[in-house]
Each structure stands twice: as structure tokens, then as C-alpha cells.
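User: Hi! I'm working on a homework problem where we have to compare a predicted structure to a textbook description. Could you give me the structure for the chain below?
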Amino acid sequence: MIINTSRTMASSTPIIFYEGIVCPPSEEMALRTVCLYVSTFVRKDAEFLLETHKHNKDIYYKWIKRLHLTDFISEVVDVEEEVYGLRIGDQTKKRPYLSFDRVSYDNLQQIIGILS
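Assistant: Happy to help. Predicted C-alpha cells:
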């Protein structure tokens, strides 16, 4: 499900992964592919963030560091910080968002197509 996105919005705001989307069943290489494609072909200055609840920040930071996603994800932000951006997650939180149950090679082309 895609809500309230436009090409200019996808290319001018941070892309925010919402906590659970970076964990299995999402595929780590598919996540890296999304980040690499967007930062190489869509927008050289693309900013990627991970949004999570305050009590989960350390857990998710260690997880994305282990997956080497810190190459792309510049900051782990708290849900309460009200950061505006295009969210990708499995739960509807704040608009605008892309709702996917996972990031995998099965839906990679669809995600990249929306973000391009």
C-alpha cells in the first residue's frame, strides 16, 4: 500500500526505515540494495534514517551495525522526535509512508521503482 507519495517528495526528504522493517524476514542485502541504488542513481545526497522507540535505540543500532547498514543509515531517531520523511515500514505510523511487510528481492523492484 502506498499513501501520499510523489516523485519530488521521494527525492527531497529523508527515507526513514521504521524499526521492524530492518529485521527478518527482510533480507539485509535487499535493504543495502535499496540504499545503494537510491544514493547512486536517484539522489547523491540521499539521507537514510532508522526510526524506533527510545527503549529500542541501542538494540537497533547494534543490529544495523552488525549488518553494515550504518554505511547508509546515518542516524537512529526516536519516534517522538517528529522527523519528517518518507517512511518504509510494516505498520502505518506517519504519512507519507510505504507499507511493506519486508524488504526482499521479491519486492525490491517495486520499492526502487517508487523511490526513483
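For your comparison, note the following. The longest strand covers residues 73-78. The chain has one domain: 2-115. Good luck with the assignment!
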